[in-house]
Amino acid sequence: MADSKKTTKNTKQRVLESACQVFAEKGYRDANITEICNLAEANRAAVNYYFRDKEELYRQVWRYANTIAVEAYPMEKQLGENPTPEDRLRAFIFVKLHRIFSKDAPGYLPKLMVKEMAEPTEVFEEIFHEIIIPQIDQLTSIIQLLLGEKATEHQIHLAGISVVSQCVFFSFNKAFRQRHFNDQEDSQKIVPFLTEHITRFSLAGIRELNAYGEESD
Fold first, then answer.
1. 114 — phi, psi (to 5°)?
2. What is the domain range of residue 144?
3. What is the pTM of this model?
4. Are residue 145 and residue 174 in the same domain, yes or no?
5. Of the residues 42, 62, 82, the one at which a domain ends
6. 18: CB partners within 8 A, 6+ apart
7. Extended beta strands in the chain, E state
8. Which residues contact 175 (CB under 8 A, 6 or more apart)?
């Protein structure tokens, strides 16, 4: 009986992990259930049995990919005692870039996000509220501390977009990465360098906003 339970668990896990890989590479619409099952060395019926259908499998893939990314690169691990808002911004950027440059499972989440943003699916609203909004809220709280109490919601929102955009650029522009950063290079070297650049660039922009303000319309 124990062996049966182990086999059942392994089959479900294999399908989930294979689905993460295929959905991350091809997006929801171009992903093929047969390809996922072949990669998982599982019967196609396994998807229906464990996940009901392709849409539910995709939903579970997002949750699984998010868990992997958070566990592999937790932001709290990058913070010392009494971190400043600047420290928090640097940690946020560092973690996001590590996930983006990861060639293993932690890299599934940013790839899924790029595909979903380009071609939203039926589960977008659910994914947005469950997985994406917590990340937005995390960055928003940091930006708000850096801009101060007088900052408008519009300023905070635009500043957050500017920070994230500098990171997300590397999610989809593989050709640029290969040409300018050598995509085969160890991410342990690339990520700290880019983290420092994006952090300094962003803080300079935020200081400019604090010094001169910005029109809210």
1. -60, -45
2. 67-212
3. 0.87
4. yes
5. 62
6. 36, 37, 39, 40, 42
7. none
8. none
